[in-house]
Specification:
0% strand; 223 residues
C-alpha cells in the first residue's frame, strides 16, 4: 500500500521555516552597514516565506525548504534594493533573485506530468535569467579594481553578442517583455502591462522565453 502524502497547511510550512528566515537574514546582514536592522531583513524574509507557502505545490515531492530559500532570500534582496546600497554584483543578485522567484512560482503552478521535464525547463530558464541579470549589471557602475582578465572579458563579450542576436530575433511582444524586465528596470507586472497582458501571463511568457533563449544559446555554442 502506498503511503499518502501528508499535506501541510501554509501556516505549518511558515512555522517550520522560521529558523531558515533568520539564518538567511543573518548571513546577508553580515555584509551590510551596521545601521541596517536585522529585524528589518527578517521582516522582508517573512513576506517571501508567506508567498512561498502560498504558492508551494506539495504534490511535486520537492522539499519546501529548497523552494522557500529562493523566495525568502529574494524577498530580502528585493527590500534592500530600494535602499540603493548595492554594488554591481549585489544589483545583479537582486535582479536575479526577483526573476528566479517568479520563475519558481510559475513552475510551481505547472501541471506538467514529468518531473524531469519540469526540472530541466525550470533550470534552463533560471540559468538564462542569471546570464541576463549579470549582463545588464555590467552597466550599473564603472569597472573597479576587480576588473576581470582580458580573456574573461572577451568570452563575456562574445556571449553578449550571441544573446543580443537572439533577443533581436524574438517576436516583438516577447522582446519588449524581456527589454522591460532586464533593461528598463520594470517589474514583471509592469513589463506585462506595457504589452497589454496580465502579470500571470507575463510570468508564464517570461519563463517560456528564457527557456527558449537558453536552448538556442546551447545550439549556437555547439555550432
Amino acid at each position: 500500500m502506498k503511503s499518502e502524502l501528508k499535506v501541510k497547511s501554509p501556516q505549518a510550512l511558515i512555522k517550520s521555516c522560521q529558523g531558515l528566515v533568520r539564518s538567511i537574514a543573518w548571513k546577508l546582514h553580515q555584509k551590510l552597514p551596521a545601521s541596517v536592522d536585522l529585524e528589518d531583513l527578517v521582516g522582508f524574509g517573512q513576506v517571501g516565506l508567506a508567498e512561498a507557502a502560498r504558492d508551494f505545490d506539495q504534490k511535486r515531492g520537492v522539499q519546501f525548504t529548497t523552494y522557500a530559500w529562493y523566495r525568502v532570500r529574494g524577498a530580502i534582496l528585493d527590500g534592500l534594493s530600494k535602499m540603493n546600497w548595492f554594488d554591481r554584483a549585489d544589483y545583479a543578485g537582486g535582479r536575479y533573485a526577483r526573476t528566479s522567484n517568479d520563475i519558481l512560482s510559475t513552475a510551481g503552478a505547472s501541471t506538467e506530468s514529468s518531473d524531469s521535464s519540469w526540472f530541466a525547463r525550470t533550470t534552463r530558464a533560471m540559468s538564462m535569467s542569471y546570464v541576463m541579470a549579470n549582463w545588464v549589471a555590467e552597466d550599473v557602475e564603472p569597472v573597479d579594481a576587480n576588473t576581470p582578465a582580458p580573456s574573461d572579458v572577451a568570452e563575456q563579450s562574445e556571449l553578449q553578442q550571441v544573446v543580443r542576436k537572439l533577443l533581436t530575433d524574438l517576436p516583438e511582444q516577447e522582446r519588449k517583455l524581456i527589454q522591460g524586465i532586464y533593461f528598463d528596470g520594470m517589474t514583471i507586472k509592469e513589463a506585462g502591462e506595457q504589452i497589454g497582458i496580465s502579470k500571470a501571463w507575463a510570468s508564464r511568457l517570461h519563463a517560456r522565453v528564457l527557456d527558449t533563449l537558453a536552448l538556442q544559446l546551447c545550439v549556437d555554442h555547439d555550432n
